[in-house]
Design brief:
192 residues; Umud Fragment, subunit A; 3 helices; 28% strand; elongated
């Protein structure tokens, strides 16, 4: 009898661990060149779905500042520089992976091949130090303020990226999670 009980406990614990992992993480396969050189088509990443869990279904709609946005999340809101996976606007079926450039309240400008950010508490523009040249695209008139509950996202490979420049902002409720690590191929393993 003891052996059956131990076996049942092991199965239950394994099932609980499996359910917990399924609820808090997701695997994602990179498709396309938009995040080169950070992520290459065919690589697999693990996405942390729990990190951006928010405290209320409609709380994000009332976000008016970065400080307020942080309060609406169980752990933390998406931050500049995070690589995220999200459901893109416009009914595209495959999820996108992009980098957060602007958070709610930021002003974003693209000029002279560079991205500039003006934070809500700042009066001056800060140029992002990037090796890639960026063109403005056609969906937005720059400079643009990132609305409450939304994010300005760009691919790292700006010449081949379908991102905020083409369709506007990623809404907070579209975000699946933050890329935690690249696990395949194993020779490219990296923690983000």
């Amino acid at each position: 009898m003891k052996i059956y009980r131990e076996f049942a406990e092991t199965v239950i614990v394994a099932a609980l661990i499996f359910v917990a992992l399924q609820a808090t993480t997701q695997t994602f396969r990179i498709l396309g060149p938009s995040m080169r050189p950070t992520l290459i088509s065919g690589e697999y990443v693990l996405v942390n779905k729990l990190v951006y869990a928010h405290t209320g279904g409609t709380a994000l709609a009332s976000v008016v500042s970065e400080e307020a946005a942080t309060r609406d999340y169980l752990f933390r809101a998406p931050e500049r520089g995070d690589v995220i996976v999200f459901h893109p606007p416009g009914g595209v079926e495959e999820d996108f992976v992009k980098r957060v450039i602007g958070v709610p309240g930021d002003e974003v400008d693209i000029r002279d091949g560079h991205v500039y950010i003006r934070r809500p508490s700042s009066t001056g523009w800060e140029r992002l130090e990037e090796e890639v040249e960026t063109s403005p695209g056609g969906a937005l008139d720059y400079p643009v303020e990132v609305p409450a509950g939304q994010y300005f996202v760009l691919g790292d490979n700006r010449r081949q990226s379908n991102d905020s420049r083409a369709w506007g902002f990623a809404r907070a409720d579209q975000i699946i999670g933050r890329v935690m690590l690249r696990y395949w191929p194993i020779s490219h393993f990296k923690i983000f």
